[in-house]
Every structure is written in C-alpha cells, then in structure tokens.
C-alpha cells in the first residue's frame, strides 16, 4: 500500500497572512487537495502563529469531519501546555511532536529521545489517552539507542526528518546515500514496532527513491514543495502528481 499523502497547509497560511484578507483560503485549498485525493491535512501551529493561526484549526477539523470522513488531521508542534491544549480542543487524528525552539526558522532536527525520555513519555501518554496517534520527529541517522528510547516513550510512529535528503536535489550520489541511510534507520524503527512517516523538503522528483528505500512508509507530509508546484500546476493537479510519485493510481474523489 503506497504511503498516505498529508498536505501541509503552512505555506498557504503564510501567503494568506501577507494581507488582512481571507485569501488564499487555508480550508479552501485543503478542500481542493482532499477532493483531488489527498489522504489528510497537516498544520504546524507555531507559537508565533507566523503562518497557521490557532483560529485555523477548528475549521480544518470541521472540513474533514463534514466533507471528508476518514481524511486525517495531523497537528505538529512542540509539546508546550498551549500546544497540548490546542490538540485536546481540535482533536487531530495524529499529533507529531517536534523539538523546535519557538525562534527556529523551520524544523531542522529530530528529538534526542534518550535525553527527553521522561517528558516525552508523559506527553505521549496524555495524547494517547485522548485517542490521538502520536508520532515523533526523528533524525534520519538515529541509532539503536535513540530508537530504543523512542519505543520506550510509547510513540506509535516516528517521522523521519528528510531535510538532508531533500537537500541532495542536485547530487544523485548523495541522494542515493541519504535514501539508503533512511532505509536502514527505517528498518531499525520497524524492528521496534514503530511506524514510519517522513517529511520536510520532499518533492515529486525525490519521492520515488524514498519510497523505494522505505517500502512500508506509512505517510508523507508535504507542504513547501507541494505548494510551490501548486502555483504552477494548480492544487488539484499537483496533488495528483504527488500521489502518482508515491505510487497511487488515480484516486481523485468522485
Ligand atoms: C516538521 C516539519 O518538517 C514540517 O512539517 C514543519 O511544519 C515545517 O515548518 P514550517 O512550514 O514552519 O517551515
Ligand atoms: N512534516 C513535514 C511537513 O509537514 C511539511 O514539510 P515541508 O514539505 O513544508 O518541508
């Protein structure tokens, strides 16, 4: 079964926030993506609300509940009390915890699971009690000690940070080495009962080698590259291109 595609709406929100106007519509583009066959929507409500605003969350949840039953809502963030409460109020299907400092320009590393084991155990339990699937952002070169800690924390999945992989767009040999590394680390994660997601700087061009390296990849969440393509090909056509790159037959919703 090819990996699920979750469309990240951060970049749409960033464009919307340039003016005090309601377009481009975050839920509007999310709807087009879902009609075109996306399996879910991802947002990262950062503390400074630089793109996704807390007020965006309930409309996205309502869109999926009312128009796309089965479509998944993935919320990403650092586990502050504020973020955990946003999750409890807006009921995502999956929560992806990332070790981001509020001032970070973007997400650029995974957790040191061993160093943060006790805190991550507690927040993971709190989220799972709410019925959310819990994923933790993970470095592509995480070793067995880190993955043992991730499993002990109780994560359902890890999401591999694919920024270094995406950065090899102009070096085929480096891309192959990064894909092989991700495949090895994914095998270690699967041996520990962890599901495998991936995200950051993924594109139509670099998805095929990634899915070949990680055959049981569960989900990819993609925003920046997908939104850039949508400016050229439209959101519906872009979602179909990304689904095809993942190996899906045409899954546009009737
Ligand atoms: C966790 C990750 O790699 C991305 O989902 C993250 O949401 C990107 O954040 P920005 O869109 O703020 O760069
Ligand atoms: N978790 C990765 C994500 O949601 C989007 O990352 P990007 O495609 O915007 O780099």
How are the elements arranged and paired?
Elements: E1 4-8, H1 10-16, H2 26-35, E2 40-43, H3 54-67, E3 72-77, H4 81-90, E4 94-97, H5 117-129, E5 133-138, H6 144-153, E6 157-161, H7 163-166, H8 172-191, E7 195-199, H9 207-213, E8 219-222, H10 224-233, H11 235-246
Parallel strand pairs: 1-2, 1-8, 2-3, 3-4, 4-5, 5-6, 6-7, 7-8
Helix pairs in contact: 2-3, 5-6, 10-11
The ligand NCC(=O)COP(=O)(O)O binds at residues 8, 42, 76, 159, 199-202, 221-225.
Short description:
By secondary structure, the protein is α/β, with parallel strands linked by helices. The protein is 46% helix and 15% strand.
- Poorly predicted spans: none
Helical content stands at 40-55%
Instruction: Please identify which CATH superfamily we are dealing with.
Output: Aldolase class I
The CATH top-level class label: Alpha Beta
Distinct ligand kinds: 1-deoxy-D-xylulose-5-phosphate, the ligand NCC(=O)COP(=O)(O)O
Task: Tell me the total number of β-strands.
Answer: 8
CATH architecture descriptor name: Alpha-Beta Barrel
**Rg from C-alpha positions?**
17 Å
User: According to CATH, what is the topology?
Assistant: TIM Barrel
Query: How many individual domains?
Result: 1
Q: If strands are numbered along the chain, what order do they take across the biggest sheet?
A: 1-2-3-4-5-6-7-8
Distance between the termini: 21 Å
Broad shape: globular
Helix and strand run: EHHEHEHEHEHEHHEHEHH
Determine the mean pLDDT: 97
Q: Decide which structural class fits the backbone.
A: alpha/beta
Q: How does the major sheet shape up?
A: 8 strands, parallel, barrel
- How much of the sequence lies in strands comes to 15-25%
Count of individual helical segments = 11
Pfam family, one: PdxJ
Site (Transition state stabilizer): 159
Binding site for 1-deoxy-D-xylulose 5-phosphate: 46, 51, 106
Protein name: Pyridoxine 5'-phosphate synthase
């Amino acid at each position: 079964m090819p990996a699920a595609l979750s469309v990240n709406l951060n970049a749409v929100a960033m464009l919307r926030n340039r003016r005090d106007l309601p377009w481009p519509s975050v839920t509007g583009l999310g709807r087009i993506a879902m009609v075109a066959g996306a399996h879910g929507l991802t947002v990262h409500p950062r503390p400074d609300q630089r793109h996704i605003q807390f007020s965006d969350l309930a409309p996205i949840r309502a869109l999926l509940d009312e128009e796309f039953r089965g479509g998944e809502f993935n919320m990403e963030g650092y586990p502050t009390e504020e973020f955990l409460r946003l999750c409890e109020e807006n009921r995502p299907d999956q929560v992806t915890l990332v070790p981001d400092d509020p001032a970070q320009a973007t997400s650029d590393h995974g957790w040191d699971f061993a160093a943060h084991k006790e805190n991550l155990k507690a927040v993971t339990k709190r989220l799972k009690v709410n019925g959310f699937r819990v994923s933790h952002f993970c470095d592509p070169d995480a070793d067995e000690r880190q993955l043992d800690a991730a499993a002990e924390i109780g994560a359902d999945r890890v999401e591999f940070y694919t920024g270094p992989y995406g950065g090899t767009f102009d070096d085929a040999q480096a891309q192959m080495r990064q894909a092989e590394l991700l495949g090895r680390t994914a095998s270690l994660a699967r041996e520990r009962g962890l599901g495998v997601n991936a995200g950051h700087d993924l594109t139509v061009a670099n998805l095929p080698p990634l899915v070949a390296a990680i055959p049981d990849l569960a989900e990819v969440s993609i925003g920046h590259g997908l939104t850039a393509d949508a400016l050229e090909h439209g959101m519906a056509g872009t979602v179909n291109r990304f689904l095809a790159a993942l190996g899906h037959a045409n899954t546009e919703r009737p």
